[in-house]
Every structure is written in C-alpha cells, then in structure tokens.
Design a protein that fits this description.
The protein is α/β, with parallel strands linked by helices and 468 residues long. The chain has a nine-stranded mixed β-sheet with strand order 7-6-1-2-3-4-5-9-8. Helix 1 crosses helix 8 and helix 7 runs antiparallel to helix 8.
Length: 468
Amino acid sequence: MTQDVKPFRIRTITAFAILHPSDFPHAEREDQENDPLAQKIDQCSTLLREAESRLSKAGYEIQTVRIATNPFGEWLTLKHDASTNHSTSTSEDYSNHPATKRAKLSSPLNEDEVDESVISDRLQKLNNLLSQHDIGFCSLGPSTSPHHTISICPKIVSIAPGRFSCSANVDACDVESARAAAKCVHIISTLGTENDAHLAGGLGNFRFCAASCVASGVPFFPAARGHSLSEKDTTSSTIGFGIGLENGEFALNLLKEAKTINAIDTVFATRMKEELLPIQEVCSQLASEFVESKKISMEYLGIDTSLNPSLDESGSIAAAIETLEEVRGDLGQCGSLSAAAAITVSLQSVPGIVKTGYCGLMLPVLEDRRLAELGMISNDGSSSSSKLTIQKLLYISSVCGVGIDTVPIPGNVSLDDLSSLILDVAALAGRWRKPLSCRVFPVPGKKAGDKTTFDSPYMCNSCIFEVK
C-alpha cells in the first residue's frame, strides 16, 4: 500500500537537556558509563534516533535532529563544587543551587568562574560526544551576562565544524546587553578565513542572535534553549523534546484555500489539526514508552506550529501571504499586517495540538526566496527602489514572529545603529510579551545595496539592507 505524501517536512526534532558543572568532573573519565555528560548526551541521542525512526516510518522527511541546553552560564563557565555533586538520576530542585545563583552574578571578576582553558576543554568534550552520536546541531542556550556575550559567545560559534549555536538574552531597555550583543555580532563577522566554511564572509552569525522573551522549548536555532536550573520543578535528569516544521508549500496551499483573511482561522484550525495530530500521536506514545522502559524523566513539549519557509520553488511564506485578496501587492504593503496577525492567531489556536516555541510567522530574508527578491535593489539607479526594509520587517513583527531574521547588513555598521536595532526588537518583545529575536549578518566589505554572494545550502542571496 502506497504511503500518503506528507504536505511538509520536519525541520527539526530538538531534545532539551539540562547540564550542570558537575557534569564536567576535574578528572577525565575513560568509562563513559559513569560519565554524567556522556550519559545525558547518550540519552538525548537515543530519544532523537527513536523519534526520527518512528516519524520516518510514518512518512515524514526528517531534516535534522538537534540538542539544546540550559543557559551556558549555568554549566560552562562555573567551577564544579564537589560538595554539590549529583547523579543523572537525581530529582533535586536546583532553583537555589549555588551554580544558579553564581550564573546570575557572573562577571569578569567572578571568582567562581573557571578559566578559558577549562571552558575550551568543556566545549571540546561536548563537541566530541556530539560527533560520536552524529548530532550536527547543538544550541548552548542564551548568555545572561553582557561579559559572557562578548567573551564567550564568539568562542562558542567559532568552534569547527560549526556545530554550536547560542544567543544573548536582551530585555527591553537593557542598553548594556544590547550593546554587548551588537559587539558580539561584530566580532563574529570578522572571525575565520576562506578555509573556515562555517565562519567565512560573516556566516558565523547564522548561529547567533539576540533573543528577547524567548522561553524554553523553542525547537528552532539559534534561540533554542532548555529549562534554566532556576526554574521550578526542574531536575537535571529531565529531557524534553519538541518538533519544528518546514512548511512553506503547505502554507501556500492553506492560504490559497482561504483566499481571504476572514477564512484563515477556519482553514488553519481544520487542516493543521488534521496534519499535525499524527505527529503528536507518535511523539506522545514515544514519550510514554521511553519513560516506562528507560526509567528516564521525559516530556514531550509539543509542536512549534510556526510557518517556516523552504528554498523550494513553492516554499516562500511571503509569496503565500501575497495570494490573499486583502494584501494589496507585495508583502509589506497594505493588508500585510492584518494577514500576519490573522495567521499568527490561528497558529497559536490550532485545537487539540500541544504547542511549544514561537508558533508564529517566520520571515527570514535569506531563507525565503520571495523575501530575498523583495530585498533586492533594482538596477534603475534609484537607492530607494528596494521594496523591503528592516523597518517593514519590524512593523510586521509587531503582530507575529520571529523578529529580524537572516538579514544581511553592511560590514561597517556602527555599534550604535546595531544596538539600537536590537533594542527595538527587544522593545516589541517586552511590550507584547512575545518571543522575538534579532539575527543579522554584517558582511565584511559590503555596503547597503550590494548583492550578497553567500554559498550556503541553507540560504539564498539578496542585497545588503541599510540599518538606520
């Protein structure tokens, strides 16, 4: 019997692990069976491979499996205190743990922090374990310290072969954190040579963003993060997992069916529930069986229902939105805001589906061919001919997600301009209590209006956007 073709791909199955300084004992353990870090990565890998296998058998194309951790300031930068050691099976509440308190107080002079060589050793150990399990993507959670954002985030992103991602938490009106994130973006844009494929030409910033109001459970990178040790009811042995989709062509079909903004809610409620329930059933059953058979604290977090584009011919979210009767022309013109708002409300209200993450409208410029086209400046000599600007993207982000995403900007953008842009994104997130991020690529040697020349399977090319 021929299996039905699924209307979308699964972009990621993301496992969320909680790490602690005691997962990195002073002495290297040759026996991985007694190594707490090795045990946690092995548990995550076992879960991810089983989920991948079951969903593949159900007919879904799985693009990636990933791991995200709690904020790295809780485990990467702090000394291990043997008096607070724990095993991977503990159910201790770490909300008042010394590591949690120290992470919040981290600074260049914090005596509880380890030196750079220890940080490098821990990153290398984690990198090696992930390589052994063929896990190609790992987000180390957000920096919660401006000092860490500048000094450690570039180190994380620079490690070959580009397995690690991270973010920096920026709250509304937090000028110091915004400037630190802007400085980090600048540093990352200058890293590497032509031989460093994961860094060359500013591509390192593909794996870093400034994140605002982003809670645990977002399966998409680089903002993905696990629960913090300070969160209630969190144990170091809990593993969660969630699903992220690539569904641009599915979005096109849904919006063509809806035709008008009035019908979006009905069409999405019916069709998305119908298509997502089989995934939910597989994942819920897996979580139940895993807990029973493996004796591991396990939680299925849900599906991020976000509309997420692909580079396929019919994979553009922007082009899908432009099919609606009320959108008067190109995305960004009249009707676009209303359409984005209606879509977002519908995505967050799909009945019967356990949801996690953004559950919004993703508009990443270099991952959506129509957006990249709109960002192109025509060759008529007019500097104002671009049909898409950062201001328009911010405007649409006021009613949806994910913020400013994969936007190429001048390599010489000033720290003042970049930090102000990050503050604007944080202000929107804080005012409306919604997760937003700012992921921009300063391209060395390029100015506003120049065309990008990225050679990446994950992105297309556009023009450099002006930041003002």
